[in-house]
Specification:
- The protein is an alpha/beta fold and about 325 residues long.
- It has 2 domains: about 5-95 and about 280-300, NAD(P)-binding Rossmann-like Domain (Rossmann fold), CATH 3.40.50.720; about 95-275, NAD(P)-binding Rossmann-like Domain (Rossmann fold, 3-Layer(aba) Sandwich), CATH 3.40.50.
- About 30% of the residues lie in helices and about 15% in strands.
- It contains 11 helices and 12 strands.
- The strands form 2 sheets. It has a 7-stranded parallel sheet with strand order 8-7-6-9-10-11-12. A 5-stranded parallel sheet has the order 2-1-3-4-5.
- Helix 5 (about 95-110) crosses helix 7 (about 145-160).
- The longest helix is centred in the C-terminal third of the chain and has 20 residues, at about 280-300.
Length: about 325
């Protein structure tokens, strides 16, 4: 039997079956919250929180040992108080890898085939046949080879694409033909027909790619941004689109969200904007719960947690 009862506060899990799975972990007392303010008002009671805490609430969380982010990214929680705190921070990294990669493939196909033209023609009841592209034989360059990047690499291979990737180390990665380290960033865009950003937002990735990389891309190349806004230099990207440095972009995340109605991205040439919606599936949340439950078992047993965030590195 566990040496103590662990008090767990969970935010954002309303499905009764999911709640039952969490409650089934031995040695825990679980309370579920739909009102974030109510959770923060009582946060001093919890040993574990699955959700988000403001800096003010963290300061009152005298018993808190572990905070689990329900999202794959944890950058929103990396304020100074959390970085300095002994509280262990973990994420749901990997829960949205599959749908994010699917969304990237959809954006690639839609832009490469100019599929919006068919949709417009259907609305107008107009038969419009034209020559379009195919992904076969193109090179997909993936910036960031974490869970999402690796899943995308496998899907790109299924479309007979060459796959190159950029990561912090040159360790071999399944379905990736060549690995580039950051020092070779200047070479990477020119090799790619489609550049996909799946990297986490950190001080190191901010502005990558920027103007120099967009200039180095082929005029026929596409940019896909699926992980987080603020990684690609958005002002440089707008110029690249407006002046034809690149052929188009598929964007699911932006530096400012929701994207303002007057943002020039809405009307940028050959650009598809989606509302940071690529991983909003029921299975994403279920996988996130699976990650949390596995970690909760580990926590109760005193075992190392998975998906621990390096507070200095930012992921």
């Amino acid at each position: 039997m566990p040496a103590r009862e662990v008090v767990v506060f969970v935010e954002g899990v309303s499905d009764s079956a999911e709640q039952a799975r969490i409650r089934a972990v031995p040695g825990v007392t679980v309370e579920f919250f739909t009102d974030h303010r109510a959770l923060e008002d009582r946060v001093g009671e919890a040993h574990v929180v699955a959700g988000w805490l403001s800096p003010q609430a963290l300061a009152r969380a005298s018993r808190l040992e572990w905070l689990q982010s329900r999202a794959a990214g944890a950058d929103f929680a990396l304020y100074p108080g959390m970085i300095a705190s002994p509280v262990v921070l973990t994420s749901s990294k990997g829960n949205g890898a599959i749908p994010l990669a699917e969304h990237a493939i959809w954006l690639m196909l839609t832009l490469n085939r100019n599929a919006v033209r068919w949709i417009d023609a259907q609305r107008e009841h107009r038969w419009d046949r034209f020559e379009h592209g195919e992904l076969n034989g193109l090179t997909c360059g993936i910036i960031g080879l974490g869970n999402s990047g690796q899943d995308l690499a496998g899907k790109a291979k299924a479309f007979h694409m060459t796959v190159i990737g950029m990561r912090r180390n040159s360790a071999p990665t399944p379905n990736v033909d060549e690995i580039y380290e950051r020092e070779r960033l200047h070479e990477f865009p020119g090799r790619s027909d489609i550049v996909e950003v799946t990297a986490p937002p950190t001080a190191e990735t901010a502005g990558m790619p920027g103007a120099a990389e967009f200039r180095a891309m082929k005029k026929t190349s596409l940019l896909i941004v699926g992980s987080r806004g603020g990684i690609a230099d958005e002002q440089a990207l707008l110029r690249a689109l407006d002046e034809g440095w690149i052929a188009g972009a598929g964007l699911d995340s932006f530096g400012q969200e929701p994207l303002p109605a007057d943002s020039p991205f809405w009307d940028a040439p050959n650009t598809i904007c989606t509302p940071h919606n690529g991983v909003t599936t029921h299975a994403t949340w279920t996988r996130g719960t699976d990650i949390f439950i596995d970690n909760l078992y580990r926590f109760v047993k005193g075992e190392p947690l998975v998906n621990v965030v390096d507070k200095q590195a930012g992921y």
